[in-house]
UniProtKB/TrEMBL annotation:
It comes from Sparus aurata (Gilthead sea bream). Pfam families: SUEL_Lectin. It comes from the Eukaryota. GO terms for molecular function: carbohydrate binding. This is SUEL-type lectin domain-containing protein. Residues 42-135 form the SUEL-type lectin domain. The keyword Repeat applies. Keywords: Lectin, Repeat. InterPro entries: Lectin_gal-bd_dom, Lectin_gal-bd_sf.
Amino acid sequence: SSRNLNFSLQIPGGTTKLHLPLHPSKSVTVPCVTPQILHTVACEHSLAFLQCGKITRSLLVIFVLGADYGRRDSSTCSINRPANHLQNTLCSRPTTKVAESCNGKSSCSVKASNSVFGDPCSDSYKYLVPSTECE
């Protein structure tokens, strides 16, 4: 008799193949791909666009590992900004709002703005950094 198998597998570093017995006399080979962690940067007032593609015929979905909104350095999103908007680099705040909006979707956009995430540091030009995987 055939059996349905439900499982979750994470494989660090590299690509491997997994043999799943579906029937005592048969097996199938399923390619397993190591997830790529994607770090996106969206400057304040712009959109972070997150998107996953397909592997074989399966549509991948977004899984947000974490996201920060604020400023952690003086060089990111600094073009044409006054120096006083880049000085405070200790004003980043973690947020779950990106995960709440995007997890489980194949694509998603989130606005990097104080109206969405609050203002962790007034008088600083901020940016959103979501870290995601496609599953």
